[in-house]
Model the fold of this input.
Amino acid sequence: PNGIKLERFVFDVFPFVDKMAILEVDRAEQFSPLKNAPGTGVDCPETSRSDLISQCIRFAEAAGATVQMPADGRQPDFEISSLVSYAGEGLESLSGKTLAADQYITDLAAVVTV
Done:
């Protein structure tokens, strides 16, 4: 084998803690498991990347922008650097703009619009 799976479950820590808190979060916003090899189609690098792109599109749309989807129907290569916005904050300058689908936003002043 070329790797070792070090997966643990939440209940594995119970014997080692004095106090514990559990948070329930929106899976689409907070969690995208990466535990399988590329190409498996489930919990793999491709699905994690797709989830991140979908989240970035939601961030842009929540700020009032529109992301132009590719004509061929594929998911765009659209990402917003976490140095620009970690959770969708600070994107107000995108409001009313139509953004090019394939771009990695590292500076709001250099956003590609259509």
Remarks:
- The mean pLDDT is 93.
- The longest helix spans residues 45-62.
